[in-house]
User: Which sequence fits this backbone?
């Protein structure tokens, strides 16, 4: 390696949590030469998927945004002119000063999480001190799964390392390697040790080849299957009464309630034979320790999504699988094991906005606020909002009422093209410092390149705006490095001294979290009002929800096909203009593709690769047909992130505003995303 060449250890910017993979990059002067997986990374051990490998194509990319842009002409014409940062700031600051703070909104996406927690935390600080509306964006992703788990009291997880070493039975319930590819190595280790792996999903995925059994069920029927498993466990005396008596609330009511949920009842809903449901229940309850690894997002994106995680989370409690090695719930997006993580750098912040003015993190309410003209200025930070919100038609109508929309991103996207008035060019992950954390470790992300063109970091932009808007105490740190350093204050070295950036660098940028427990709930203290597992949830009852786990059958439709969406290994949400800005990802994802069962395709005279129209009363969307038995008859599936697919989905609230905030830290504000469709050839 020449003297001008440098090798830097960092983390992949894709932000596909819970997976966070290590990278080793080589740079020369201000040019990226290579990217490869970091063999020494304690989490990924050299693994780097196609998404991470493709990120070198961000740099020197002709599609990259490099200067501030101002819209000319009408919205949607996609006509722009360059402007200076001074003029761009002046337009935004003036718009904010011409309205009230509560009429300014901040919506952030995964795109500002490419360097970890630092950017999103600073947005929270900016919003709180400025008195602006800001929302918890987990409501478009993992929150409904967490909501159901939180009602029961099982939000914390065991680690993938514990699963690899100790689990005898593993239920991959909606979990895929597309969402968490680093789980693959742990599954292989567990299987070599003799663990029995069962996949439960609505389609066959990359993880199917690692499973000993694959059970495909219709979308939204997970709660029915879970309740039937609980019925069998109780009926056959496979439950752990000692654990139940000591650590749960409402078991007598739950036991009586379960009588109705027979395997025969569930079979009619799920399509799984009654005897196979019984066998699954017996395996889970007797071939222990048994771990359930839940999907993070897609399986909960329907009207009653929270019911699935609520019912599933009762199974480890019923069998006494919580607080033991190899049991409980495994790695999941939106969850962490018990440990000391990063310091709270917002502890000194008092929110300026009063609660009565706040628009809650509730998708239907947010869309309604836009349509009612309650937001004058909107900052879209690393997001293609129209691709991620349900019922994007209603959202687009609402965005049209916002007076000024500013987009901060690396590339254009459809929301920017159609709705934005001003564009701020973003820095990429190698152009700024950051910190990422996995379930077990904290990782330093060093800057390796100077920003291209006039790109500015979000930290720089927010500091500049805070100064011009006279927002006091926004950045009480000496520098960006000092700010990143402040997150380490909760960690201590072996001598008891606080962890510093100097120390972290000396250790190669890796740090295992303090007080890390690979096994959750060993103290049998659960995050519920009773501090017990709550089969009966009084707070749910008071909020108008069922206090006991239930299954609600979806409302039918005149359209025959149930539409759902999720991730693949070759794409991540709508990153990089739906993947089309990076040649490697564009080649892997040339356009939308609908998975459809051969029987459904034959009935509609559809051939593989043929252009089709997917439609319902809300709208229509064009794609190519992919005919496969990897989905059930009556079900169609598509990769998420494509602009336009959410024209088909419902924006109906999943839970009411009364029930939205009853699980601390986990809003129930996701819209339903339900869609029944049909399709035909073009």
Assistant:
């Amino acid at each position: 390696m020449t003297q001008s060449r440098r090798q830097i250890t960092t983390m992949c910017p894709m932000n596909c949590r819970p997976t966070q993979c290590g990278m080793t990059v080589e740079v020369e002067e201000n040019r990226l030469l290579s990217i490869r997986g970091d063999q020494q990374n304690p989490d990924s051990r050299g693994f780097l998927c196609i998404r991470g490998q493709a990120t070198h194509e961000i740099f020197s990319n002709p599609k990259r945004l490099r200067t501030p842009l101002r819209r000319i002409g009408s919205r949607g014409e996609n006509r722009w002119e360059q402007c200076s940062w001074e003029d761009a700031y002046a337009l935004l600051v003036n718009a904010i000063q011409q309205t009230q703070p509560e009429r300014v909104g901040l919506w952030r996406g995964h795109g500002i999480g490419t360097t970890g927690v630092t950017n999103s935390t600073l947005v929270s600080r900016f919003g709180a001190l400025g008195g602006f509306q800001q929302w918890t964006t987990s409501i478009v992703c993992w929150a409904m799964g967490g909501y159901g788990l939180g009602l029961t009291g099982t939000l914390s997880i065991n680690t993938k390392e514990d699963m690899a070493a100790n689990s005898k039975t593993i239920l991959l319930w909606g979990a895929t390697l597309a969402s968490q590819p680093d789980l693959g190595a742990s599954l292989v280790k567990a299987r070599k040790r003799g663990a029995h792996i069962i996949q439960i999903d609505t389609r066959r995925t990359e993880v199917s080849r690692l499973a000993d059994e694959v059970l495909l069920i219709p979308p939204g029927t997970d709660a029915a299957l879970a309740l039937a498993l609980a019925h069998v466990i109780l009926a056959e005396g496979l439950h752990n009464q000692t654990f139940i008596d000591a650590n749960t609330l409402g078991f007598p009511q739950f036991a009586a309630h379960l009588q109705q949920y027979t395997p025969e009842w569930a079979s009619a809903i799920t399509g799984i034979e009654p005897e196979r449901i019984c066998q699954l229940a017996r395996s889970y309850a007797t071939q222990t320790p048994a771990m359930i690894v839940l999907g993070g997002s897609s399986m909960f994106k329907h009207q009653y999504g929270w019911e699935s995680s609520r019912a599933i989370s009762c199974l480890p409690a019923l069998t006494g699988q919580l607080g033991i090695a190899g049991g409980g719930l495994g790695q999941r997006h939106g969850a962490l094991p018990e440990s000391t993580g990063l310091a709270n750098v917002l502890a000194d912040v008092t929110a300026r906005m009063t609660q009565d003015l706040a628009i809650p993190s509730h998708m239907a309410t947010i869309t309604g606020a836009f349509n009612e003209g309650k937001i004058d200025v909107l900052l879209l930070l690393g997001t293609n909002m129209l691709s991620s919100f349900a019922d994007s038609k209603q959202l687009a109508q609402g965005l049209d009422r916002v007076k000024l929309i500013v987009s901060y991103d690396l590339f254009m996207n459809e929301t920017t093209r159609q709705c934005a008035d001003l564009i701020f060019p973003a820095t990429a992950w190698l152009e700024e410092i950051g910190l990422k954390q996995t379930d077990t470790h904290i990782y330093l992300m060093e800057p390796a390149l100077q920003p291209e063109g006039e790109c500015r970091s979000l930290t720089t932009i927010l500091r500049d705006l805070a100064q011009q808007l006279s927002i006091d105490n926004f950045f009480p740190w000496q520098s960006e490095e000092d700010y990143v350093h402040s997150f380490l204050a909760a960690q201590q070295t072996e001598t008891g001294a606080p962890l510093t950036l100097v120390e972290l660098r000396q250790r190669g940028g890796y740090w295992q979290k303090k007080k890390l427990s690979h096994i959750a709930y060993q103290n049998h203290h659960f995050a519920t009002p009773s501090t017990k597992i709550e089969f009966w949830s009084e707070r749910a009852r008071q909020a108008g929800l069922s206090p006991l786990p239930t299954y609600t059958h979806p409302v039918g439709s005149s359209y025959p096909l149930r539409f759902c969406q999720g991730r693949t290994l070759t794409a991540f949400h709508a990153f990089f203009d739906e993947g089309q800005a990076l040649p490697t990802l564009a080649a892997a994802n040339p356009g939308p593709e609908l998975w459809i069962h051969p029987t459904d395709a034959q009935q509609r005279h559809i051939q593989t690769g043929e252009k089709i129209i997917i439609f319902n009363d809300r709208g229509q969307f064009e794609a190519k047909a992919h005919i496969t038995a990897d989905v059930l008859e009556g079900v169609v599936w598509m990769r998420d992130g494509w602009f336009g697919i959410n024209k088909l989905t419902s924006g109906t609230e999943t839970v009411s505003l009364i029930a939205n905030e009853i699980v601390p830290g986990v809003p129930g504000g996701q819209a339903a995303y339900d869609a029944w469709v049909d399709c035909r050839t073009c």
